[in-house]
């Protein structure tokens, strides 16, 4: 059964307060979107549920399947791979119920309101795209456990409803087979935990690559635990690593990512770049993912971060504006005062630091 609210499951007061505000915002957005559909006659559809999404369908650590990466309370569970096949789940009663609600102008679950796969149909009485099995991408969560506590993440709530916190290696192998059978173009090996916290990660990544040799495989990590040569060797199986490091010192990073360590994360980026380069490899692409807040967005701070990224051989530096937590939004970014930094892209802005390592398809 889904929890009534992620906020009730969170111990950290700052995170809990942020999620209470987020819950209120979602309720307001549900009212707005449903009212808009009534007024315009244009209803909705979900890109994940019709198989168009690159980043929607998520296989959780306990083999439940969710319709989004933000399913903190289980309300987006479509089914359970321990009971049914992926095809049965994807075309199953929960997915059909969600789609039917959208086509009536209703929001099936509040999470939809802040999901990039929630789309309004182009015209009154328009039909959604035909449903097909997803192939463009999916998320695969090897663990829901994390070594840090981010203010904008209600992971604790999700962990409370997972029957299995870390996916066993034999089940991970089955999921790798599933991705291959579906012909997945991309696997995002991430969700609500820290991938490198899994005790089997040095086996997981080569296995995933062996069964999906042509797939783009992406990991997002806080970097702290990518700290041994065995893990770095396994990471060579990846296409792209996003290092979530949101500042240039511990004090700045810990305003959002509690229990983090800038020094350890920075060393992890440096050592991974050196390990890869020593082998003459160009992959994985290494990206410093810098979530932008009003406490880390001063132009001098960003200029320093770019120089630090260049110094250790990172390939891409990207800034990602966010409104979560609600009090952290970067007004410098919103007012266009950071438009001189890099190039505009779907993330926000990015700078390609080592173009020889970043093919055109990886530039945004």
Count of strand segments: 15
Helix/strand/pairing class, anyone?
A: alpha/beta
- Spell out the helices and strands N to C: HEEEEHHEEEHHEHEHEHEHEHEHEE
Helix amount: 25-40%
Average pLDDT, rounded to a whole number, is 92
Number of helices: 11
Report the uncertain regions: none
Shape, principal axes of CA atoms: globular
Task: Report how far apart the termini are.
Answer: 39 Å
- Supply Rg: 20 Å
Biggest sheet record: 11 strands, mixed
The order of strands across the largest sheet is 4-3-2-6-8-9-10-12-13-15-14
Strand content: 15-25%
Summarize the helices and strands and which ones pair or pack:
Blueprint: H1 13-40, E1 44-46, E2 58-59, E3 64-66, E4 77-80, H2 86-90, H3 93-103, E5 118-120, E6 138-140, E7 149-150, H4 155-161, H5 169-182, E8 186-188, H6 201-211, E9 216-221, H7 229-235, E10 240-244, H8 250-253, E11 257-258, H9 262-278, E12 285-292, H10 299-311, E13 316-321, H11 331-334, E14 343-344, E15 349-352
Parallel strand pairs: 2-6, 6-8, 8-9, 9-10, 10-12, 12-13
Antiparallel strand pairs: 1-5, 2-3, 3-4, 7-11, 13-15, 14-15
Helix pairs in contact: 5-6, 6-7
């Amino acid at each position: 059964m889904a929890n009534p609210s992620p906020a009730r499951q969170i111990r950290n007061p700052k995170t809990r307060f942020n999620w209470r505000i987020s819950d209120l915002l979602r309720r307001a957005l549900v009212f707005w979107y449903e009212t808009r559909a009534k007024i315009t006659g244009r209803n909705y559809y979900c890109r994940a549920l019709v198989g168009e999404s690159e980043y929607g369908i998520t296989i959780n650590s306990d083999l439940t399947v969710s319709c989004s990466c933000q399913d903190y309370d289980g309300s987006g569970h479509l089914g359970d791979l321990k009971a049914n096949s992926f095809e049965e789940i994807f075309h199953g009663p929960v997915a059909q119920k969600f789609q039917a609600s959208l086509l009536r102008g209703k929001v099936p679950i509040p999470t939809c309101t802040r999901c990039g796969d929630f789309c309004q149909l182009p015209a009154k009485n328009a039909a959604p795209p035909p449903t097909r099995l997803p192939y463009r991408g999916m998320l695969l969560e090897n663990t829901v456990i994390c070594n840090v506590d981010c203010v904008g993440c209600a992971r604790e709530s999700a962990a409370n409803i997972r029957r299995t916190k870390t996916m066993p290696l034999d089940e991970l192998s089955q999921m790798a087979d599933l991705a291959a059978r579906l012909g997945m173009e991309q696997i995002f090996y991430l969700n609500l935990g820290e991938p490198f916290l899994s005790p089997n990660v040095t086996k997981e990544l080569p296995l995933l690559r062996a069964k999906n040799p042509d797939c783009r495989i992406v990991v997002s990590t806080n970097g702290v635990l990518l700290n041994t040569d065995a893990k770095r060797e396994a990471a060579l199986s990846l296409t792209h690593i996003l290092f979530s490091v949101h500042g240039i010192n511990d004090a700045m990073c810990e305003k959002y990512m509690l229990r983090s360590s800038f020094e350890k994360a920075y060393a992890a980026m440096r050592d991974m770049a050196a390990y890869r380069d020593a082998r003459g490899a160009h992959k994985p692409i290494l990206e410093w993912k810098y979530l932008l807040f009003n406490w880390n967005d001063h132009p001098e701070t960003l200029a320093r971060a770019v120089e630090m990224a260049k110094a250790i051989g990172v390939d891409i530096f990207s800034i990602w504006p966010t409104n979560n937590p609600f009090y952290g939004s970067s007004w410098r970014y919103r007012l266009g005062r950071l438009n001189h930094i890099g190039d505009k892209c779907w993330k926000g802005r990015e700078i390609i630091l080592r173009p020889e390592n970043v093919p055109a398809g990886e530039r945004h």
